[in-house]
Amino acid sequence: MLLEVKNLNAGYGYLQILRDVSLHIDKGEYVGIVGPNGAGKSTTMKTIAGLISPMSGTVIFNGEDITGLSASAVAKKGISFVSEEMNLFVNMTVQENLYMGAYTIKEKHLQKERLEFVFELFPRLAERRKQLAGTMSGGERKMLAIGRGMMSNPSLMLVDEPSFGLAPQLTTSVFASLEVLIKNGVTILLVEQNVTKTLAVTSRGYVLENGKIGLEGKSADLAEDSYVKKVFLGV
Amino acid sequence: MSKNYTSYILPWVKTAPGMSIVISIVVTVAATIDAGPYLLVNMVVTGGMLALVATGLTLMLGVLNIPMFAHGEYFMIGSLIAYYIFTPISEFIFEHPESWLVTFGPFIAIIGALAGGAIAGAISEKLVFGPLRRRSTDNWVMNSFLLTVGLSVLLINLHQLIFGADFKGIVGYWQGMPISIADVYVSKDRVMAFIISAVIVALFYLFMTYTRTGMAIRAVSQDIIGAEIVGIDIEKIVLLTISLACALAGVAGGSLLFMYPSYPTVGLEPLYMAWFVVILSGLGNILGAVAGAFMVALLKVITMEYVGAGWDFVVPSALIMFILIFKPSGIFGSDVRGVLDK
Q1: How do residues A168-200 score in pLDDT, each as one tens digit?
Q2: What is the C-alpha to C-alpha distance for residues A185 and A113, in angstroms, rounded to an integer?
Q3: Nearest CA in chain A to B233
Q4: What is the ipTM of this complex?
Q5: How far apart are CA B34 and CA B54, in angstroms?
Q6: Which of A18, A164, B30, B288 yields a CA-CA distance of 20 to 30 A from A175?
Q7: What CATH number did the domain enclosing B185 receive?
Q8: In this complex, do B229 and A49 lie within 8 Å of one another by their Cβ atoms?
Q9: Cα separation, A231 vs A226, whole angstroms
Q10: Nearest CA of chain B to the CA of A224: how many Å?
Q11: pLDDT tens track for B97-139
């Protein structure tokens, strides 16, 4: 098991969002968390990434307890977080942003290799390597955020709302790029509001409601589930 | 070929940085022809010093969001350390005029000031800013501003208590005849002070642009969460940034000891001037801060020449207010939306 989250309780200040969330991901899996707004999807991601320290519960990654570590320590363990807001370095060029993504890699030649790899995945970024990240379009920024997340050669990628604020066509191309990553052997935990799309691409899914895991199972089964259909898909 | 150049230069001249740089150069040349080359020399030396203090200030403000009003005190600490290192050296030089210390003694004092500034900065992070950050980052700008003002008062009075309120100065670092540049005699100290500040600012710029750590500092200034999730250790970067910023102020104080003898409030003038620079040039832009430093130095020198020595704060601040009405983000302020705009 690559990542195991057990009975996680977390929130902001006195406000508790997550209640006893448990989930697990195996190596090479493509797992999705779906749920309505405010269910705690992003909070789950931020807690795993170390941006929020949990009230109780454990996060075990690669057999190692990483609960309550700082975000930079979690990144060094091999988890890379692509946040909803992307958190790009807007006054740096695309290439500099990508090199910062490889901050945990010290060897120069390995950084170069990763850069070549990311440029191969996203030729668009290679074209714009000298452009400032802040001057790019929404879709390109999303690509850059995902590319930056790839630079550290992570064993697990947490991708939060990749379709947020994007035009439908761009959403498709962002999902296509995640597909490529899966083919390259990366494990991905995806959080999305777009339930249909998520359940179509992922292999397994969790349904998060009011901070609790409501349902879990194979994505195909979830998509056929009468409850999911009624609540999320409006069928 | 020449057409190519003009097509690059003309649009640049119409932008705010281009216009202000061109106007500054024209004014400098005109004033130099009118009043004499010493004006240019004064501007360059003052500008070099201001560039050191202002880049430190820009760094504190851009990376850590601390409006630093105690920066002048690190200038003071630098000058104090340089004084106490250089006084015994100069006595030794007086007895042994052939010693290697004649040439290298001043460097020991200036490097001491640099190291002293860095250490003082690290101590203030550990004792003052770090504890505040761990307690709460709510209302951070206001709280850290108040802390820096308190720190400034504390350091000024500590200086007075321990070392006294008298002027602790030196006659000069390097002895010997002044150097003649274009018919003006410039003392060796002034030439060296400018060279030192130019070299340090250049090294600092290269460090920030090309090294991994320098890029990490910029990353933290642009998006702190982004910096955390790529694995940058924020605590380390913060400590390094504060020491660097304070070291820059310290080395400015040390290398200008011959002009500004050390006394408790010696740092206030460089502090205010550096704030002029930062406000004028916009935040978080090192090259902008350097260019702004020379512009403020020019304003100051010209005011002293043509208006009167007592007006050297009035005219620059009035002009800066005027410029800010038209360009609120500063002349070199970035057009890209940054973290501060959110």
Answers
A1: 888 888 888 888 889 888 999 999 888 888 999
A2: 17
A3: A72
A4: 0.90
A5: 29
A6: A18
A7: 1.10.3470
A8: yes
A9: 9
A10: 36
A11: 877 887 888 999 999 999 999 999 999 999 999 999 888 888 8
